[in-house]
C-alpha cells in the first residue's frame, strides 16, 4: 500500500538541527520526510545552473514521498571534498542507503569504502563510478549512455549526408562536460560509434572531427569554447552537444561567430524546450535531441536504494538499471512534446516503479 509522506524542505533543516544532528553542509541541503524511519541520502555534486539536475532531485524526492521514506538531499556545489563530507554527514544522521551523483568517479573512494564497511548500500546515478568503486555499489542508474549517444551520432551523420554533398568537407565540433569524467567519455565513445558507423555504411563523405571542447554542463561555460571554435573554423558545419543544458550557450557562441544559420546541431537530454524549438523552427539549426530522463533517473535511483536496504537482490540485475531513450526530431517533436514537464520520460516506466 502506498505510504503518504510530506515535504519539509527548508523547515526540514531546522528539524534536523533541533534533533541534535550535525549542521547542514554549506553547499546546501534539503529533505523530504516520510512516514517511517527509513532514511535515504542523496548526494548531488552540483545543482545550481542546471534544470536537468533540479529535475533529477525532483524525481528522487517524489519517489521517496511515494514510498513514505525520508530523503536527505545535499548539494556539494561542485566540490569533491564537500561531497565526501556530505555523504559522511548523512551517514551520521542515520541514512541507511546512499544515492550519489559523483563529481569525480574516483573522488569518493574513501567514503565508498566506509559505506561498505558499515553495510550501507550505495547507488550511483547519472555518473558512473570508477570500476573498482562500482564493484562496491548496489546499482548504477542512468540511460545507456553508449546506446543513447550512438543514436545521436547516427542521426547527425544522417542529417549531414542529407544536407552536404560528398565533395563538401564537413567540420564537426563536439562539446562535452568535463575532461576526464566518465559521463563525457561514454557519450563521446557512443557518439563516435553511431557517427562513424553511419559513414562506414555510407562512405565517401569528407569529415573532420575537431578536438573535443568542454562546457562543464552549463550554458555560460559552453559559450566561450564554442565561439572560439567557430571563429577559428568559419566553415564549421555541425555540432554535437552532450547536454541540452548547454544549448543556449552553444547557440550564443555560434551566433557571435556568425555561423549559427550554417550548422546542424544535435543535442542530448530530451528537453521539452528543445522539442518545442524544433516544432517552431523545423528547418533551424537544431535537428535532434535524444532523451535522458532526469526525473525518471532520480526516482529509479531512490527506489534502488530502498530495495537494497530492504534486501532485494533482484531489482538491479547485472548492477545497472537503464532508462529508455527516444530520439526527438523536427519530424516527431509534436509526438513527444509535453508542456507540463521539463524533460521527456516514460510515464509507463515511472508507474512500474514500486
Automatic annotation (TrEMBL):
<feature type="domain" description="Periplasmic binding protein">
    <location>
        <begin position="41"/>
        <end position="313"/>
    </location>
</feature>
<dbReference type="InterPro" id="IPR025997">
    <property type="entry name" value="SBP_2_dom"/>
</dbReference>
<dbReference type="GO" id="GO:0030313">
    <property type="term" value="C:cell envelope"/>
</dbReference>
<feature type="signal peptide">
    <location>
        <begin position="1"/>
        <end position="27"/>
    </location>
</feature>
<dbReference type="Pfam" id="PF13407">
    <property type="entry name" value="Peripla_BP_4"/>
</dbReference>
<keyword id="KW-0732">Signal</keyword>
<protein>
    <submittedName>
        <fullName>Substrate-binding domain-containing protein</fullName>
    </submittedName>
</protein>
<dbReference type="GO" id="GO:0030246">
    <property type="term" value="F:carbohydrate binding"/>
</dbReference>
<dbReference type="InterPro" id="IPR028082">
    <property type="entry name" value="Peripla_BP_I"/>
</dbReference>
<comment type="similarity">
    <text>Belongs to the bacterial solute-binding protein 2 family.</text>
</comment>
